[in-house]
């Protein structure tokens, strides 16, 4: 289950870090494009957003639940008891439930539902773009973090960008449009992921154990309940009638790729580049996914979307670069 150090030792730390960064950015970008193409009813997708969430959770669980059981057995063999849930999650029940509710369950349901109503261009700006904003506000409230004037300016640019994208959608709400609903779902999904991130930081969680924990909670809660609702006809799901190729693709990309692989590569990227430079690298995601939405999905890049994208990207980069001097010692200690 654990990654083999002998394999990674064949390459230089810089090569491993760069490869991890490329894989992370590609998966995060592809997540937005594939989720929109799969969940948009106009594109003929056979799976509902809740079906895709089901595939994501089951796909990740195939790998992470056995891995979690392995870690729990290791902990018990070392005399560490009480820090597991159902002997699968390597974290305590209280922590597993709290991080799993936001990072494993709500995030997936809200994000995939948003793609039914709003285009990928909106998701490109509002999900990765608003994540630093929610994280900063929640860290200020829950962790007592301080927001410097420079960082506040960066967050202000993000707010302006989000308003340019989502605000205009809200203005058309009375015209009968539903894009605004997708925008709201994207923003709330980003807030859920930010909540998970802040909780993980508050508890000092290991990235792999946290990923296993949120998947365990989502699997235990969502899979049996959603299966029962679909089989009894209460919810119009197609997860038990859709072609196997569609189910396998979603389970492989959404579960293995978006959850397992990107979770590991993101952690590896932070180990090499440090948290500040890693955030700057992931700031490429809004722009790349927006370009992909225009080129691959044929979505129009209107002036407000382009301006919002520019403001959000500038806000992320400005806010992170403004904190580089403060974070130098943290990065050095993280990499050591």
Task: Write a structural description.
The protein is built from 12 helices and no strands. By secondary structure, the protein is mainly α. The longest helix has 39 residues, at 244-282. The protein is globular, with a radius of gyration of 20 Å. Residues 326-336 have low confidence and may be disordered.
Map the helices and strands:
Blueprint lengths: L4 H4 L4 H27 L9 H29 L15 H25 L2 H24 L5 H23 L7 H25 L3 H25 L12 H39 L1 H13 L6 H20 L1 H12 L1
Helix pairs in contact: 2-4, 2-9, 2-10, 3-4, 3-8, 3-9, 4-7, 4-8, 5-6, 5-7, 5-10, 5-11, 6-7, 6-11, 9-11, 9-12, 10-11
Quick recap of the structure?
With 336 residues, the protein is mainly α. 79% of the residues lie in helices and 0% in strands. It contains twelve helices and no strands.
SS field, number of helical segments = 12
Low-confidence stretches: 326-336
Biggest sheet, open or closed, and with what strands and sense?
none
| Count of DSSP strands | 0
Q: What overall geometry do the principal axes of the alpha carbons give?
A: globular
Query: What share of the residues does DSSP label as strand, in percent?
Result: under 5%
- Domain tally: 1
For the termini, the CA-CA separation is 25 Å
The helix-strand sequence is: HHHHHHHHHHHH
Q: Overall mean pLDDT score? A: 85
Helix content: over 70%
Radius of gyration: 20 Å
Which structural class do you get from the secondary structure elements? mainly alpha
């Amino acid at each position: 289950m654990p990654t083999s150090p002998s394999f990674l030792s064949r390459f230089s730390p810089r090569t491993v870090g760069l490869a991890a960064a490329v894989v992370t950015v590609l998966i995060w970008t592809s997540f937005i494009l594939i989720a929109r193409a799969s969940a948009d009813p106009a594109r003929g997708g056979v799976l509902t957003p809740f079906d895709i969430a089901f595939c994501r959770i089951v796909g990740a669980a195939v790998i992470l639940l056995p891995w979690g059981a392995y870690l729990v057995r290791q902990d018990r063999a070392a005399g560490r008891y009480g820090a597991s849930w159902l002997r699968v999650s390597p974290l305590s029940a209280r922590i597993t439930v709290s991080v799993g509710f936001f990072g494993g369950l709500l995030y997936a349901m809200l994000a995939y539902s948003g793609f039914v109503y709003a285009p990928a261009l909106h998701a490109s700006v509002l999900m990765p773009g608003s994540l630093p904003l929610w994280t900063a506000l929640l860290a200020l409230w829950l962790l007592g973090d301080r927001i410097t004037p420079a960082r506040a300016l960066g967050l202000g640019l993000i707010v302006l960008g989000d308003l340019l994208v989502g605000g205009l959608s809200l203005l058309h709400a009375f015209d009968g449009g539903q894009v605004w609903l997708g925008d709201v779902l994207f923003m709330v999904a980003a807030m859920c992921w930010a909540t998970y991130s802040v909780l993980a930081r508050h508890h000092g969680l290991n990235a792999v154990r946290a990923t296993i924990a949120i998947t365990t909670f989502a699997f235990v809660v969502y899979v049996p309940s959603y299966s029962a609702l679909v089989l009894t006809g209460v919810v119009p799901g197609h997860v038990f009638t859709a072609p196997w190729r569609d189910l396998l693709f979603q389970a492989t990309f959404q579960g293995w790729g978006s959850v397992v692989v990107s979770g590991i590569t993101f952690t590896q990227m932070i180990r090499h580049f440090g948290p500040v430079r890693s955030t700057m690298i992931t700031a490429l995601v809004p722009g790349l996914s927006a370009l992909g939405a225009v080129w691959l999905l044929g979505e129009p890049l209107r002036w407000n979307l382009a301006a919002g994208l520019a403001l959000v990207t500038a806000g992320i980069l400005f806010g992170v670069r403004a904190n580089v001097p403060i974070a130098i010692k943290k990065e050095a200690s993280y990499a050591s």
